[in-house]
Amino acid sequence: MELYLNKTSPYARVARICAIEKQLGNDVNLIWVDPWADDKALLNANPNGKIPVLVTNEGEAISESLLIASYLDGLSSTNSLLRTPDYTDVLALSGLSQGLTDAAFTTVINRKHFGKESDSTVLGVRRQNAITRCLQRLEDMVNTDVMRSDINLGQIITAVALSYIDFRLPELQWGSDQPLLADWAARFSERGSVKETAFA
Fold first, then answer.
1. Core-most of 8, 45, 76, 84, by most CB within 10 Å?
2. What are the structural domains, with CATH classification, of the chain?
3. What is the pLDDT of residues 18-39, one digit of tens each?
């Protein structure tokens, strides 16, 4: 299999962590690309030019990190990241933290192209409010079973989202308002798959 990715995409990092946790790391060839450079190989695999995209051994190209995670989870019975006793809760946590990722990522992209004043637009304010609400909801969930259980997809997306905020939006200093979540993230960051895929 081939996984098209770069080292700063939170979405690509989720897919890569899933591959590692499913013990499929040796089966996935990492193809490092710049999605902003209209890389021909990437566009051939995924015409919309987004990463990550996973090309299966059968030649099918699967885009979107959640779909890639679902596919990888089905390839091996090792450490199911989705089919846990808390399946519905895993999906709910995944959706919540994917929304946090989207709000943070879109903030970064808009700042890159339109300047930090884009935060003051109607959409910019909505993104900032979404980040605040999502962080508080996650803080309230720290002691729930889905956050305390064995690793699952929701935890992976949550950890990557928080790390991405630290990487790209450090001024938010979210840990001071969400100390329980900060402690959880610090513990989760000690996993080998998380260390191996650190943003760079």
1. 45
2. 2-75 (3.40.30.10), 87-191 (1.20.1050.10)
3. 999 999 989 999 999 999 999 9
